[in-house]
Design goal:
The complex is a heterodimer of chains A (about 160) and B (about 1000). Chain A has about 160 residues and is of the alpha+beta class. Helices cover about 45% and strands about 15% of the residues of chain A. Chain A is built from 7 helices and 5 strands, in the order ααααβααββββα. Chain A has a 5-stranded mixed β-sheet with strand order 2-3-1-4-5, with helices on one face. In chain B, strand 22, helix 37 and strand 23 (about 820) form a beta-alpha-beta unit. In chain B, helix 8 packs antiparallel against helix 9, helix 18 packs across helix 22 and helix 25 packs across helix 41 (about 980-990). Chain B has a 5-stranded mixed β-sheet with strand order 2-1-3-4-5, with helices on one face. A 5-stranded mixed β-sheet of chain B has the order 11-10-14-12-13. A 5-stranded parallel β-sheet of chain B has the order 17-16-15-18-32. The chains are: A alpha+beta (about 160), B alpha/beta (about 1000).
Chain lengths: ~160, ~1000
Amino acid sequence: MPAADATLDGILEPFQPAGAGDLIPLLQEIQEAYGYLPADVLQEASRRTGIPTSRMYGVITFYSQFHLEPRGRHTVRACRGTACHVRGGKRVIEAAESYLGIGDGETRDDLTFTFETVACLGACALSPVIVVDERYAGKVTPERVEQMLQAVEAAEAAG
Amino acid sequence: MIESVAAFRDWQDELAAGLDPEAKVVTVCGDTNCRAFGSEAVRESFTQEIDRRGWQEQVSVKTTGCPGFCQRGPVVVTLPEHLFCGGVCTDDVPEILERVVLGGDAGVETVHDRDLFFYSGQRREVLRLNGILAPLDLEDYVAHGGYAAAAKALSELTPEQVIDEVREAGLRGRGGAGFPTGVKWRFCRDAEGSPKYLICNADEGDPGAFMDRSLLEGTPHAVLEGMLIAAYAIGASKGIVYVRAEYPTAVHHSEVAVEQARAAGLLGENILGSGFDFDIAVHRGSGAFVCGEETALIASLEGRRGMPRPRPPFPAVSGLWGRPTNINNVETLANVPLIVLKGSEWYRGIGTEGSKGTKIFALAGKVNNTGLVEVPMGTTLREIVFGIGGGIPGGRHFKAVQMGGPSGGCVPARYLDLPIDYDSVKDAGAIMGSGGMVVMDEATCMVDIARYFTEFVMNESCGKCAPCRIGTRQMHDILVRITEGRGELEDIDRLERLGEACAEGSLCGLGQTAANPVLSTIRHFRDEYVAHIVEKRCAANSCKKMVGTSCVAACPAHVNVPEYLALIKEGRSAEALEMIRRRNPFPSVCGRACDHPCETFCRRADLDEAVAIRNLKRFASDEVAGVGTPPVWKGERKGRVAVIGAGPCGLTAAYFLALMGREVTVLEKDEKIGGALITGIPAFRLPRDVLGRDIEYIRRAGVTIETGRSVDSIPKLLAAGYDAVLVAIGAQESAELAIPGEDKDGVEDTLAFLRKANSGRLAEVDGRVVVVGGGNAAIDAARVAQRLGAESVTVLYRRSREEMPALDEEVEEAISEGVEMQFLAAPVAIEGNGRVTHVRCVEMELGDADEQGRRRPIPVPGSESSLAADRVIVAIGQQPDLGLAEGYDGLEVDGRLFRADPVTQRSGESPVFVGGDVVTGPSTIIGAIGAGQRAAVAIDRFLGGAGELPAERVLADAIRPGEAVMAIARHQQPAQGYQLRIACLEAERCLRCDLE
């Protein structure tokens, strides 16, 4: 185990002993702490809880919220719900992808951005919708998306 | 910690007494939607401004849940007056505060919320506190009557009585299937086993629905109260809120509300001293649509992959951890306190026979007012979409409402007047679902929508049942093929068979309903499927592989819009004009009088507003001084063509034929050149010198135009040595009203009137003028009469303003010039002794929708009245003079029109071609230009040529979209010319769909 022992200890504490129903909340906690689900952390968690890694893997790959790869420091999520679809959401997605140079579900090599599309963000009245680091923006245009991403990049560059 | 119902009631009374109805409060919506528009900054600004002015005593600020009118976010409502302020920014804050504290009505625009039809058309029961309460303030909820229903149930009703009350009320599950809630509770109550679970399903995955999120964010305690009552009724001791992780605020608010309720003794052991124990945990879903299905949700809670299992056993018998489990949707639970408090009788008074109460719909898509609306069951789609929703933006036509998400379907225009409830929606081929209502307009392709939903269910299929896992992929592949123009007619049958197999062979609701979007679009929009497959045509101009660029495809002349807009942006107007003329020789005319289908289908309109293409065309044509030089044919001209009629169709055909090296003569019976451009369009809309420029350009291309040349026989023309003839004489005969008294003096048709007025033979109009009709010709006639000094001008139209076919902006201008509009009125007789004195009218009312969704006008019995009139202008349509067909067999006639091949414009096998209004009936200028262009190509080929139009010029270095630009140009006065800078900015708004 790398330097994460203390973190993992804290996460596992309320789950001792871990019941079957604890797996998803446990994975959610680990992901919250590490930003994704590192293989070594999962193995250690498996050893200590007795939940087989094979079961973990089955659950992780079923749900879209779990990630086995490191994520970018900034997450850009574009909605592809019905309302966004009919209101030009595709153009917003294309604008984000072309600006970031990555596709749906991908992370930039420098780990600055992860881009993903979401089935519906539940903000249909303001379609098309994009969320940058939990900040929702409604009725966006391709130009607006570029501005938002530029602003994030500028803030990143400024430290 | 409150230990008894009596203590709770004392607390409630105390809190309620503390509410000051006169208190000045600024409420700011804190829902996710309004926060996306910056409501947090607005709230912050209110707090600062109050501090700065030292007004803390006079006014307070409160962050609330969603008041529903998301379109106008950030929404601020000021109390006690209930003034609604939409689109508030921080700059508005001082004015709003001054108004609240000091009174007066200066400053920002506000309106009483009950005066907004968006609200007055609704019946907000479940949402009544959303937008009023601070979501995380338990006392606020209790002060407004919260938990009183729970206290009543716990102290006055047995569980059996609660179940009976809910069953009597007729409450049906709001999550989609509409199963009676009381019956469901009864199953679970009767089941053996302990503990029993109550789950609130907030895994709201249907794209297009967000009422559950909004309820949990705005009034989380109302949902918890519903859960508490439900748990009491079925005897559950453990509750779970299963909420999507994609809804962080809803998760947070649920968690905080549970803690608050627990601390107050409203959850936990021995609640309010009743001896009943119940506690709630919040569980975050992890992003799987299928977990909205009950057994999949349970699998997910048990820490497994969320895959459904066969039923029975039903969760009521064996659910979570094998115990009896009841699962209700958020909105269902939010209805429960209302029923317990107000009684089933009250509740039954709302709604229809089979569906009681109200329903919350999430209105989104191509509709002006988006947001959450709550209406009684049985409200019609028209009331929701066109009433509360304010209709369709951008001048497009309504096509369908998608209801029920991926399990639902598209409900077309002819169901607009259908009262909506569980059963009627099902009959229309959709489902109520959770209440998502995504409005679609004519630019939305129904095959693409079917593809979209099929892609969704394909991705979300858990993979357990083969018919769903494989069937959705097969359907998706077929739909992709069709949208790319590679479909075959058998595909429609294949889709239907696959859809049925998927429905029959799948375990859960996802698979059973996966094909609904496909089947409902095939049922209601089979034409679109066939057009994609047979004609390779997408009526919505949307399917990229087939139509290329939407605006170019929508234009009957297929002008390369993006390229010429790019040239205008660069300040190269002369080149832009030249580019337009490669497909349309009338840029100056179309810059003013075109009905611009390019703008209707502009993809920018999906996002905000269409690029102002027509005005930019006008700008380019105004910018360029002089007529310009066409690329004149240098070689010897071969093949003689006669074009009968110098209107837009004839002149366009002549122009292109001249460019292709033919010897063309246009024969026009009038002295003036332009046909319907002169007789049909008044000079104030199309100045004659502007028309003259385009005509001169056409002449310079080598077209001979002879005026005063009436043609009465095709054989004579052919005998005179013409190799081909184009008949483009337009529709110059007016249709008649067919009512008594139509032959009286003072009654004339619109063309005769406009011809006289436009030629200057009628210098003045006096007296009262009545115009009958609702098209552009009617409005033109009315405006001309008004300008020529009529005492009054009244337009009679048998339907309402919404159905009026005339261009909206023309109608607006007519009204602003003083023309009166009398809608829902039709003439039944013209009265007078020799000369008209009155028009006898009958009132009309609108009946059910026709296929296009337009409501049929029906006369109201006994509603006749007389309208004084000195002159009646009939403008109910025109038809062509079919006389030419009498002496010549080669001209085919179809009813009141000539018949031609839709592609070549050729009439049968003869050397005669027909085009424009003679074939289509009165149509548009650009429609006639398109027909002329097609006829030119076909005639050239007929004469042995290649039929090549000037090469579609493509700029060597594509000009790409630049920096963001606001829709400035739209807000300038469109009737006036554009400044260069504004034009450049507007042109830059083009998304360059052609470069994708």
